[in-house]
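Standup notes
- DV: blocked on the single-chain target, sequence here:
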Amino acid sequence: MEGKFCILLAQSKKSNADYFSSVLKKSGYDNIVFAFDGIDAVKIFEEYSPKVVFIDSTLPLLDGISVLKKIKKIDTDCIAAITSAEYSKALADEFIRNGSDGFITEPFSEDRIIPWLIVSIAEKERSRKLKEEYRSMSVLFNDRLDFERVVGKFASENSLSFEEAKKQLCSISESKNIPLKKLIEILK
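- DV (later): unblocked, structure below
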Protein backbone atom coordinates (compact mmCIF):
# COMPACT_ATOMS: atom_id res chain seq x y z
CA MET A 1 0.00 0.00 0.00
CA GLU A 2 2.99 2.32 0.49
CA GLY A 3 3.29 5.19 -1.96
CA LYS A 4 0.17 4.20 -3.89
CA PHE A 5 -2.15 6.73 -2.27
CA CYS A 6 -2.06 10.47 -1.77
CA ILE A 7 -1.05 12.12 1.52
CA LEU A 8 -1.94 15.75 2.28
CA LEU A 9 0.37 17.75 4.53
CA ALA A 10 -1.68 20.71 5.77
CA GLN A 11 0.91 22.59 7.79
CA SER A 12 1.22 26.26 8.70
CA LYS A 13 5.04 26.02 8.76
CA LYS A 14 6.91 25.04 5.60
CA SER A 15 9.68 23.56 7.76
CA ASN A 16 7.20 21.10 9.33
CA ALA A 17 5.80 20.19 5.91
CA ASP A 18 9.34 19.63 4.60
CA TYR A 19 10.22 17.43 7.58
CA PHE A 20 7.06 15.31 7.28
CA SER A 21 7.63 15.02 3.54
CA SER A 22 11.21 13.81 3.94
CA VAL A 23 10.22 11.25 6.60
CA LEU A 24 7.34 9.96 4.47
CA LYS A 25 9.40 9.79 1.26
CA LYS A 26 12.20 7.97 3.09
CA SER A 27 9.61 5.32 4.05
CA GLY A 28 8.22 4.98 0.52
CA TYR A 29 5.25 7.33 0.72
CA ASP A 30 5.95 9.66 -2.16
CA ASN A 31 2.55 10.85 -3.43
CA ILE A 32 2.39 13.99 -1.27
CA VAL A 33 0.50 17.27 -1.71
CA PHE A 34 0.81 20.39 0.43
CA ALA A 35 -1.43 23.10 1.87
CA PHE A 36 -0.29 25.96 4.06
CA ASP A 37 -3.67 27.29 5.19
CA GLY A 38 -7.05 25.77 6.00
CA ILE A 39 -8.84 26.97 2.87
CA ASP A 40 -6.20 25.43 0.60
CA ALA A 41 -6.28 22.25 2.71
CA VAL A 42 -10.00 21.72 2.00
CA LYS A 43 -9.61 22.71 -1.66
CA ILE A 44 -6.67 20.35 -2.18
CA PHE A 45 -8.44 17.57 -0.27
CA GLU A 46 -11.41 17.85 -2.65
CA GLU A 47 -9.12 17.88 -5.67
CA TYR A 48 -6.74 15.02 -4.78
CA SER A 49 -8.84 12.81 -2.42
CA PRO A 50 -5.91 11.90 -0.17
CA LYS A 51 -6.26 8.84 2.04
CA VAL A 52 -4.07 10.35 4.78
CA VAL A 53 -3.96 13.93 6.07
CA PHE A 54 -1.65 15.54 8.61
CA ILE A 55 -3.44 18.70 9.81
CA ASP A 56 -1.73 21.43 11.81
CA SER A 57 -4.04 22.43 14.67
CA THR A 58 -3.22 26.11 14.10
CA LEU A 59 -3.67 26.51 10.34
CA PRO A 60 -4.34 30.09 9.24
CA LEU A 61 -7.63 31.16 7.54
CA LEU A 62 -9.45 28.02 8.69
CA ASP A 63 -8.23 26.27 11.84
CA GLY A 64 -7.37 22.59 12.12
CA ILE A 65 -10.63 21.52 13.78
CA SER A 66 -12.67 23.20 11.02
CA VAL A 67 -10.54 21.56 8.33
CA LEU A 68 -10.93 18.18 10.04
CA LYS A 69 -14.73 18.52 10.19
CA LYS A 70 -14.92 19.50 6.52
CA ILE A 71 -12.71 16.71 5.23
CA LYS A 72 -14.48 14.08 7.35
CA LYS A 73 -17.77 15.22 5.77
CA ILE A 74 -16.18 14.64 2.35
CA ASP A 75 -14.56 11.29 3.20
CA THR A 76 -15.21 9.66 6.57
CA ASP A 77 -12.65 6.96 5.80
CA CYS A 78 -9.64 9.21 5.32
CA ILE A 79 -6.98 8.87 8.00
CA ALA A 80 -6.40 12.19 9.76
CA ALA A 81 -3.68 13.06 12.25
CA ILE A 82 -3.54 16.37 14.03
CA THR A 83 -0.11 17.89 14.47
CA SER A 84 0.55 20.43 17.19
CA ALA A 85 3.40 22.26 18.85
CA GLU A 86 1.88 21.43 22.25
CA TYR A 87 -0.18 18.64 23.75
CA SER A 88 -3.42 19.50 25.45
CA LYS A 89 -5.80 16.74 26.53
CA ALA A 90 -8.80 18.99 25.90
CA LEU A 91 -7.57 19.81 22.38
CA ALA A 92 -6.75 16.16 21.61
CA ASP A 93 -10.18 15.07 22.89
CA GLU A 94 -11.92 17.69 20.73
CA PHE A 95 -10.10 16.51 17.61
CA ILE A 96 -10.78 12.85 18.38
CA ARG A 97 -14.49 13.60 18.94
CA ASN A 98 -14.52 15.15 15.47
CA GLY A 99 -12.92 12.20 13.70
CA SER A 100 -9.17 12.53 14.16
CA ASP A 101 -7.32 9.23 14.10
CA GLY A 102 -4.31 10.54 15.97
CA PHE A 103 -2.55 13.47 17.62
CA ILE A 104 1.17 14.00 16.96
CA THR A 105 3.06 16.65 18.92
CA GLU A 106 6.41 18.32 18.44
CA PRO A 107 9.17 17.41 18.42
CA PHE A 108 8.12 15.41 15.36
CA SER A 109 10.16 12.30 14.73
CA GLU A 110 10.26 9.48 12.23
CA ASP A 111 9.86 6.87 14.97
CA ARG A 112 6.52 8.45 15.97
CA ILE A 113 5.16 9.34 12.51
CA ILE A 114 5.79 6.15 10.53
CA PRO A 115 4.61 3.62 13.17
CA TRP A 116 1.45 5.70 13.70
CA LEU A 117 0.86 5.74 9.94
CA ILE A 118 1.42 2.00 9.49
CA VAL A 119 -0.88 1.11 12.39
CA SER A 120 -3.55 3.58 11.23
CA ILE A 121 -3.55 2.20 7.69
CA ALA A 122 -3.81 -1.37 9.00
CA GLU A 123 -6.62 -0.39 11.38
CA LYS A 124 -8.59 1.38 8.63
CA GLU A 125 -8.21 -1.65 6.37
CA ARG A 126 -9.31 -4.01 9.15
CA SER A 127 -12.29 -1.78 9.89
CA ARG A 128 -13.21 -1.61 6.20
CA LYS A 129 -13.07 -5.40 5.90
CA LEU A 130 -15.19 -5.86 9.03
CA LYS A 131 -17.81 -3.41 7.73
CA GLU A 132 -17.84 -5.20 4.37
CA GLU A 133 -18.21 -8.58 6.07
CA TYR A 134 -21.01 -7.24 8.27
CA ARG A 135 -22.88 -5.87 5.24
CA SER A 136 -22.47 -9.18 3.44
CA MET A 137 -23.68 -11.17 6.44
CA SER A 138 -26.58 -8.78 6.90
CA VAL A 139 -27.66 -9.30 3.28
CA LEU A 140 -27.43 -13.08 3.68
CA PHE A 141 -29.38 -12.93 6.93
CA ASN A 142 -32.10 -10.75 5.40
CA ASP A 143 -32.32 -12.99 2.32
CA ARG A 144 -32.71 -16.04 4.57
CA LEU A 145 -35.31 -14.25 6.68
CA ASP A 146 -37.28 -13.27 3.56
CA PHE A 147 -37.09 -16.85 2.30
CA GLU A 148 -38.38 -18.30 5.56
CA ARG A 149 -41.18 -15.72 5.83
CA VAL A 150 -42.36 -16.42 2.28
CA VAL A 151 -42.16 -20.19 2.75
CA GLY A 152 -44.03 -19.88 6.06
CA LYS A 153 -46.71 -17.69 4.50
CA PHE A 154 -47.02 -20.05 1.49
CA ALA A 155 -47.28 -23.04 3.86
CA SER A 156 -49.98 -21.35 5.91
CA GLU A 157 -52.02 -20.22 2.88
CA ASN A 158 -51.87 -23.68 1.28
CA SER A 159 -52.19 -25.83 4.42
CA LEU A 160 -48.73 -27.32 3.90
CA SER A 161 -45.87 -28.11 6.23
CA PHE A 162 -42.85 -25.82 5.98
CA GLU A 163 -40.86 -28.54 4.16
CA GLU A 164 -43.70 -29.22 1.69
CA ALA A 165 -44.06 -25.50 0.99
CA LYS A 166 -40.31 -25.21 0.42
CA LYS A 167 -40.38 -28.12 -2.04
CA GLN A 168 -43.35 -26.62 -3.92
CA LEU A 169 -41.67 -23.21 -4.19
CA CYS A 170 -38.49 -24.87 -5.50
CA SER A 171 -40.61 -26.75 -8.01
CA ILE A 172 -42.38 -23.55 -9.10
CA SER A 173 -39.00 -21.86 -9.46
CA GLU A 174 -37.76 -24.65 -11.75
CA SER A 175 -40.95 -24.97 -13.81
CA LYS A 176 -41.15 -21.22 -14.45
CA ASN A 177 -37.39 -20.91 -14.94
CA ILE A 178 -37.22 -18.18 -12.28
CA PRO A 179 -34.35 -18.14 -9.80
CA LEU A 180 -35.64 -18.99 -6.32
CA LYS A 181 -34.40 -15.65 -4.97
CA LYS A 182 -36.42 -13.80 -7.63
CA LEU A 183 -39.53 -15.93 -6.86
CA ILE A 184 -39.17 -15.05 -3.18
CA GLU A 185 -38.95 -11.34 -4.11
CA ILE A 186 -42.16 -11.68 -6.18
CA LEU A 187 -44.01 -13.45 -3.37
CA LYS A 188 -42.81 -11.16 -0.57
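- Follow-up: The domain at 7-108 is CATH 3.40.50.2300 (Rossmann fold).
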